[in-house]
Give the backbone structure.
Amino acid sequence: LILCIGVGVGACDPFGLDAGGDDELERNRTRWTSLGLSSYEYVVSRSCFCAPSALGPVLVRVEDGVVTERSFVDVIDPDPGEPGEWFPSVSGLFDIIADAYARDAHQVEVTYDPDTGVPLDVYIDYEEMMADEELGLTVRSLPVPIS
């Protein structure tokens, strides 16, 4: 019985983190960086217990690695407000994921694009026993270079 308990405990991850999540993150960040794409646009949305202006979807324009514009797309509300910094560059998506790992988030699930390394779907549950602090991010269109 003790052996079974030991094997069971060793086989599970008490924090709900994917073993090797940090390694997978860095592999995909390297894949993205190797593309050398510093000026691009992409569309991202969030799912969270937050104001509608924090949900999107938002077109994010990045020039020379810096977010220069954020604008809502496909929004029904005639005045959704200004999209805030909740909508980062692709590098910012990687930073959010890295921060979740650094904070020992209860659960981190990420699906990466196999060609670009871009995090396509991100789900983070920071605290197991807390409601409404989860964060989801979905890339709705892959980055497109701009000149």
